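W.,

You were right to be curious about this one. When I first looked at the sequence I had no strong expectations either way, so I just let the prediction run and decided to look at it fresh. Below is the sequence, 89 residues in total, followed by the output.
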Amino acid sequence: MAEYITKERAKDLIVAASSGNSTRLARMLSKLEDEHPADVVEVVHATTSNEYWNEVYCLWKTCSNCKCTNHIYANYCNWCGARLDGDEE
């Protein structure tokens, strides 16, 4: 899986690595500005609970992020998009 950093963080790393060489710094920052950004979003993780289960509607679970109910086999919350994998990062 690919990992991403923000453009601002990349600029900070370039400035730190340039060792005071202004020509090299300007060239590297120019190349960074020319790059197209990746279309990514941060993954929100959530746990699920069965506190709202009952005998009639037992196929639903509750997302810990938004407190909405989802189908028992859902991998992502239909309401907030959180990944229902049991991690709360």
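Here's what jumped out at me. DSSP finds two helices and three strands in the chain. And, maybe more interesting for your project: The beta strands are 48-49, 60-63, 69-71.

Coffee later to discuss?

I.
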